[in-house]
Amino acid sequence: MEHKVIKDFLPEMELKALEHIVFGNKFHWFFCRRLNENQADHDSDFFFHRVIFVDERTSLRDAPPKPSYEYFKAPAFSLFESLIKRLKIKTLLRIHVNLFVKTPTLVHHTPHKDQIPKCRGAIFSLNTCDGMTRLENKICVPSVRNQMLLFNPSQLHNSTSTTNKPRRLNINFNWYDD
Predict the structure, then answer these.
(1) How many domains does the chain have?
(2) Using CB atoms within 10 A of its CB, is residue 78 exposed (0-12), middle (13-18) or buried (19+)?
(3) 95 membership: H or E segment, kind and range
(4) Mean pLDDT of 62-79
(5) 3-state secondary structure string, 48-77?
(6) Please, are residues 38 and 156 in contact by the beta-carbon 8 Å criterion?
(7) C-beta separation of 72 from 53 below 8 A
(8) Rounded mean pLDDT of the chain?
């Protein structure tokens, strides 16, 4: 799958309702020291995230589902249903909201592959900044408010920080079509 960028993905009213919650002071963020398993511990590579949905029973790499694996659906899940419908997701695996803080220089995080075999991936940008997502073929997709990036998450890709806004916010999706 080649990547695809869709501008103006959500109607403005739906986007503003989502922003009101995610940018608000009642949306709880969790500190994460490393962005992925390939990354060394560096002081500048931390980020904040919020898990909205995860179903690891169906998403573990090359492993059969096991009942002991995590299933989680946050109370805030309903805020993301419009995005799920517009993506035409059939089997949702996970939704994470990421917050990357402003850094003095643009930090390119360690490339990684999502740990879910043969799934689809998307990144929705909540704000415009000089941050970006870099794909395996060296294509850099800028972080632009209300823009959806569809891509193959089993290929190497990485995020960046931002230098011109207080934070970079995006929402990551992984799903199966069948």
Answers:
(1) 1
(2) exposed
(3) strand 91-101
(4) 66
(5) EEEEEEEECCCCCCCCCCCCCCCEEECHHH
(6) no
(7) yes
(8) 86
Here the tokens at position 114 are 């999502």
* Chain CA centroid to CA 160, Å: 12
> Are the C-beta atoms of residues 144 and 162 closer than 8 Å to each other?
no
Helix (H) or strand (E) holding 160: none
* Residue closest to 151 by CA, chosen among 116, 121, 177: 121
Tell me the per-residue pLDDT of 131-173, one tens digit each, with 9 for 90 and over: 999 999 889 999 999 999 999 998 999 999 999 999 999 999 9
pLDDT digits over 38-52, tens only?
Answer: 555 555 567 899 989
Strand, helix or coil for residue 83: helix
Which domain, by its residues, includes 80?
4-60+67-176
Q: Which two tokens stand for residue 149?
A: 């990036």
In angstroms, what CA-CA distances link 58 with 42, 83, 174? 31, 21, 11
Residue type, 177: D
Domain CATH code at residue 105 = 2.60.120.620
CA distances from 156 to 8, 111, 116 (A): 26, 6, 13
User: How many C-alpha atoms does 11 have within 13 Å on its Cβ side?
Assistant: 3
- Rg, C-alpha atoms of the chain: 15
Confidence band of 2 (pLDDT split at 50, 70, 90): confident
